[in-house]
Design goal:
This protein is an alpha/beta fold. The protein has 2 domains: 222 residues, TIM Barrel (Alpha-Beta Barrel), CATH 3.20.20.60; 28 residues. The protein is 40% helix and 15% strand. It contains 11 helices and 8 strands. The longest helix is centred in the C-terminal third of the chain and has 17 residues. The structure holds 3-methyl-2-oxobutanoic acid. 3-methyl-2-oxobutanoic acid (KIV) binds next to strand 6.
């Protein structure tokens, strides 16, 4: 039996913060699992893992492949599957793809980007037994349509979007790239938990992309990221040492040989 489900997550609101991190493979999922409530198989894997410029070319097949790996590594964790761009453009397509997720992986819920305009799709999924997490504010899948990533300041729209998702039956919402006071207002306005990324501290939980949080992504550090490890530096130092040892004949030694 999994330790966390949508009911226990919802009961945390106002009591205890929800902790979420991304993972894309079994190895890291297993390391993260004991310390987090939710593992998100985010479409950010298209950038972090596949080296693409944005998340838009991620496919259902790719997301399922990584989700299956995460499921193997974190058997007891609550796993959230991020629906890739284009996989939920209407009710029929969204349900077909969401059913694919439940039938082919251990994912407990799906996440999709969009507010009011996606409410009918969310309602249809929920009616068919799919647990849905919304994602509003800065929506990375809109990066090309909007010409970049921008912090969201439109209070009215944000509150309307959040309310529409809650009314449609979403069990939780992620709010990204939003002024802290607005995110707080959203959290206070909703009964369901609101998890933030770049949305300040006054929400019901936090999510970070693992490679940002562990310092493996070196190119730049968004303001909202805290690095808990200098992963890239540590890896480079270790591999440089390995290379030096091999070249100098210092690796392997007698104990490391048969
Ligand atoms: O894809 C992802 O990792 C996400 C997080 C940024 C919330 O959607």
């Amino acid at each position: 039996m999994k330790k966390v489900n949508i009911k226990t997550l919802q009961q945390k609101k106002g009591q205890e913060k929800i902790v979420m991190i991304t993972a894309y493979d079994a190895l890291f999922a297993k390391l993260f699992a004991p310390y987090v409530d939710i593992i998100l198989v985010g479409d950010s894997l298209n950038m972090v893992f596949a080296g693409e410029e944005d998340t838009l070319s991620a496919t259902m097949e790719q997301m399922l492949y990584h989700t299956k790996a995460v499921c193997k590594g974190a058997k007891e964790s609550f796993i959230l599957f991020d629906m890739p761009y284009g996989s939920y453009i209407d009710k029929k397509i969204a349900l077909k793809n969401a059913l694919k997720v439940y039938k082919n992986s251990c994912a407990d819920a799906i996440k999709l980007e969009g507010g009011k305009e996606k409410a009918k799709i969310v309602k249809h999924l929920v009616k068919n037994g799919i647990a849905v997490c919304g994602h509003i504010g800065l929506m990375p899948q809109n990066v090309r349509g909007e010409g970049g990533y921008r912090v969201v300041k439109d209070r009215k729209k944000l509150l309307e979007d959040a309310k529409a998702l809650e009314d449609a039956g979403a069990f939780m919402i992620i709010v990204e790239g939003v002024k802290a006071n607005l995110a707080q207002e959203v959290s206070e306005a909703l009964k369901i938990p609101v998890v933030g990324i770049g949305a300040g501290a006054d929400v019901d939980g936090q999510v970070l992309v693992w490679s940002d949080m562990l310092g493996f992504f070196e190119e730049f550090k968004p303001k909202f990221v805290r690095r808990y490890l200098e992963g890239a530096t540590l890896v480079k130092e270790a591999v440089a040492k390995f290379s030096k040892d091999v070249k100098e004949g210092a690796f392997p030694n007698k104990e490391e040989s048969y």
